[in-house]
Amino acid sequence: MCAREPRVDAGRLVAEMVPPPRFDSARFATYVPDPGRPGQAEAVTVLSTFAAGLGAAPGTGQGKRRWFGRKPEAAGTAPRGVYLDGGYGVGKTHLLASLWHATPAAPEEKAFGTFVELTNLVGALGFQQTVRTLGGHRLLCIDEFELDDPGDTVLVSSLLSRLVEAGVALAATSNTLPGKLGEGRFAAADFMREIQGLSARFRPLRIDGEDYRHRGLPEAPAPLTTEQVTRAAHATARATGAGAGAASLDDFPALLAHLATVHPSRYGALTEGLRVACFTDVGPVPDQSTALRLVVLADRLYDRAIPVLASGLPFDRLFGEEMLNGGYRKKYFRAISRLTALARDAKSVIAE
């Protein structure tokens, strides 16, 4: 990846606002609720009804059905959004992608992206053009809504207000802060506070559960040797016939330095075409700016289901105690969870 310097135009950013490849086949029918967590099954029911109520074009009023099973509200005040409230790995992204797929509208009338991707879109298009671009959509899904960046949160809150005025339905997720696990409302109170005047437009759906990425699975695999990682990268390239483009092979410190030269909106393009990502000499992330860039890369690798082979430290030792106890800790825990899952996926690469 260090050799790649992708350029992504604004048009591509908009066109790529669809569920990531990992969730191409995500549907409500393929979501497996935990029998011990009734909120998971309830979320499927509520979201299915919500999707069915979005069949009418914006402005017709037909999309504002009683999908919450309540009496119709005055025009302009009916809830037009849902917030999936829960911890790591309970299937919120699966449900959000299922909602996108189930909404009866053409793909160009629906948008799906992470909070970071949405702020990147505003940066590329400008605020007013983003409003015009997304204002004709039936649905906007925002995954991993960030509650720890006041500036970006205010920007997105303003954007969502304009989109709601245009008749766009909204759906969002965010993760529970690790220090708040076990509290009654997870992150819902924080979310409702940060979106300010939009809070009345959202119904929070609580989704309890354990992280499915680690539910009943063995511990994270131990790191490989540098020789094993290097051999696997070259073997993958030969086996696919795609040459070096099928597998990346990067010295981890050099990769971290390279990420500083690429805008995070291009990290998806940075991983394009990869069948496996290989890192050597993984070590502690030196500072917060670097750590946040790595989080975005981990998200893009996970979205695209790209296995990760690595030598050096295990992924649960990437971030120091100060980071894991700080304001961005939820991002770091998510990155650890996702990179660990991708390291497990890489077992099939080694087997080949």
Main features:
single chain, 352 residues, alpha/beta, five-stranded parallel β-sheet, 13% strand, globular
SSE arrangement:
Elements: H1 10-15, H2 38-52, E1 81-86, H3 92-102, E2 110-114, H4 115-125, H5 127-134, E3 139-143, H6 150-165, E4 169-175, H7 188-194, E5 202-207, H8 226-240, E6 247-251, H9 252-259, H10 267-270, E7 276-282, H11 288-303, E8 308-312, H12 321-324, H13 329-345, H14 347-351
Parallel strand pairs: 1-4, 1-5, 2-3, 3-4, 6-7, 7-8
Provide a compact summary of the structure.
This protein is α/β, with parallel strands linked by helices. It contains 14 helices and eight strands.
Textual characterization of the structure:
The structure is a single chain. With 352 residues, the chain is α/β, with parallel strands linked by helices. Helix content is 41%, strand content 13%. The protein contains 14 helices and eight strands. It has a five-stranded parallel beta sheet, with helices on both faces. The longest helix is centred in the C-terminal third of the chain and has 17 residues, at 329-345. The protein is globular, with a radius of gyration of 20 Å. Mean pLDDT is 81; it is low at 59-77 and 176-186.
